Amino acid sequence: MKKNILVIPGDGIGPEVTQWGKAVLEQIAISFNHEFNFDEALMGHAAIEATGNPLPDETLEKARKSDAILFGAVGHAKYDNDPSLKVRPEQGLLKIRKELGLYANLRPILLFDELLNASSIKAHILRGTDILFFRELTGDVYFGEKTRSEDKNTASDLMIYHKYEIERIAHKAYEAAMQRGRKLCSVDKANVLESSRLWRETVQEIAKQYPEVETQHLFVDNAAMQLIKDPKQFDVVLTANLFGDILTDEASQIAGSMGMLASASIGDGTGFFEPIHGSAHDITGKDLANPLASILSVALMLEISFGLKEEAQLIISTIDRVLKDGYRTSDIADDSTSPYKVLGTQDMGKLVLK
Amino acid sequence: MKKNILVIPGDGIGPEVTQWGKAVLEQIAISFNHEFNFDEALMGHAAIEATGNPLPDETLEKARKSDAILFGAVGHAKYDNDPSLKVRPEQGLLKIRKELGLYANLRPILLFDELLNASSIKAHILRGTDILFFRELTGDVYFGEKTRSEDKNTASDLMIYHKYEIERIAHKAYEAAMQRGRKLCSVDKANVLESSRLWRETVQEIAKQYPEVETQHLFVDNAAMQLIKDPKQFDVVLTANLFGDILTDEASQIAGSMGMLASASIGDGTGFFEPIHGSAHDITGKDLANPLASILSVALMLEISFGLKEEAQLIISTIDRVLKDGYRTSDIADDSTSPYKVLGTQDMGKLVLK
Ligand SMILES: CC(C)[C@H](C(=O)O)[C@@H](O)C(=O)O
Ligand SMILES: CC(C)[C@H](C(=O)O)[C@@H](O)C(=O)O
């Protein structure tokens, strides 16, 4: 198979971890006799520094032409500390999601047995959990009109949904549910928000087309609680952009660490694969970041964009073996158990490659 | 002390639990020689059934004239299942919050030692946690303009903040932090939302007036994760209406159960006290609800609205003793420990009274 892959390392720990995702792709190409051609592009703070634009035209052009994109992270403390800055790294990520029509963000909560004890949640609560989040990614308050009054003292963001936006991601989520446990939980705040009422009505309509799937509707506050109380109750979770942002970060604690979670953004064209963690500027350059989320993003790319199931499975089983052998990055080390071999980013990357 | 207290039982388990909050107030009046006069009023589904209006004028009038309000919960499955209904129970709660100017919702995450094992989170992660949430309660996407297009296919809610709304709750939160651990974490989504950028700028300004308090800003997705990963890191958490709704329900799992958490809504006038749990129609009338959140709401009322610290302390220590004696409602029972005496709502209420 011949594919063109665009690598966008981005900011913070993005480059450190993406390096290992890319290395794994190269190794897979060799082992399975594929031809993966790589190109690289700028986004976020890195792109602002170089070009003034968080998403340069060149990056977007390369993205459109590629068969899949491996992305790291964007963000920088400078902007977080100064909310008045007009040009911001995250605009690059939001714009590429919109421009590529990446409306469905799949976030599987994949639990490695070996990490059951790395979580702050009790192992018996976690065991058997297998959740697939469908987070809507190109609508909601993320993309609605933003305003700031002239006197600067009033600010707003429009939370808005169109029915077709809800329908298309609902179909994707139901199709996935049909292939899995046939349960779907839609999360909204329909007791307060009009956009959530449209969300709920629409999901109720789509649900009728999938009678084999058991549908449940939860308010987002309740869902945030249930995820910790009893994560096993969930199969597919379908939700809006903002709620999905919050709930999937929360759910990372089920998998032990944010450093273990990958995501796939799909839609009209090229697929986009990234860890769910951010740029983590506090640990950047310290060889502390966990490269497994980037490597797992590569597994998602191989399976979802290229249909290469065997290759994807090999990556997951390799990570499983590395964990079984007791190797950990510091975020998933658990000092209550036998002394782990705690590795830095580089050594963990190398180990998986081997 | 002479006080007029309005009781609004509301819907679902509201009446079952509020009955015990009120009974505890009556007992406190006798023991400490206070005069508490009670009145009752309708809100939510109960009020819609009786008057067509989720917040009848009469209720609002009584509320304005009372010295404090003890509230249960609102909500009903009928409305949850039919998002197209125009008159909804929750409108009553939102309107009374707005009309009474209840802009600050205090949600203490109070951890009883005896319940450390009732949580799905590991005891050593929880031990020592003591968080006080300040959730803004009369602004945000809850109260911004709502629209639905004529063809019904587009719906929106305006997420909007004015600077003064952020300032007044920030002051309250900083004042509380000064009396506690002198740490304040403000939660927003300033990397995406303009209203959050105003939030962050404003909190940064107010922070300067409280140099003894260590201020931190977290994005809401990160905060949702950190709450489970390491809840002990938090002291006062200050956040907007929607984020506070989600994070405090999530944080209920730190305290073992939603059935243990009380909240105080304060602002311009009369204080409003309620459990953070909802109407829970699935367990309504089954003698399963935990009355302790309502009883703890009463403790908050006595302390915050009436300045009766000793009385409030007595309630908390009584609950502590009941728990130490091994009594539990089913939501906080923990089957891995010695066989608890699992009680229904009524028996738990009676026990605390004794
Ligand atoms: C960086 C930020 C804009 C982004 C988001 O909120 O979508 C991130 O948190 C994510 O979840 O991918
Ligand atoms: C019932 C609902 C409107 C309410 C809210 O969202 O504020 C509830 O969840 C709460 O937290 O008090």
In short:
The structure is a homodimer of 354-residue chains. By secondary structure, chain A is α/β, with parallel strands linked by helices.
Give a structural overview.
Chains A, B: The record marks 142, 189 as: Important for catalysis. Chains A, B: Catalyzes the oxidation of 3-carboxy-2-hydroxy-4-methylpentanoate (3-isopropylmalate) to 3-carboxy-4-methyl-2-oxopentanoate. The product decarboxylates to 4-methyl-2 oxopentanoate. Chains A, B: InterPro entries: IsoCit/isopropylmalate_DH_CS, IsoPropMal-DH-like_dom, Isopropylmalate_DH. The structure is a homodimer of 354-residue chains. Chain A is an alpha/beta fold and 354 residues long. Chain A folds into 2 domains: 1-103 and 261-354, Isopropylmalate Dehydrogenase (3-Layer(aba) Sandwich); 120-254, Isopropylmalate Dehydrogenase. Chain A is built from 13 helices and 14 strands. Chain A has a 10-stranded mixed sheet with strand order 2-1-3-12-11-4-5-10-8-9, sandwiched between helices. A two-stranded antiparallel ribbon of chain A has the order 6-7. In chain A, strand 8, helix 8 and strand 9 (214-219) form a beta-alpha-beta unit. In chain A, helix 1 (14-32) crosses helix 11 (292-305) and helix 11 packs antiparallel against helix 12. The longest helix of chain A is centred in the first third of the chain and has 19 residues, at 14-32. Strand 7 of chain A pairs antiparallel with strand 7 of chain B, so a sheet runs across the interface. One 3-isopropylmalic acid (IPM) sits between chains B (74-75, 90, 93, 245, 276, 278) and A (191-192, 221).
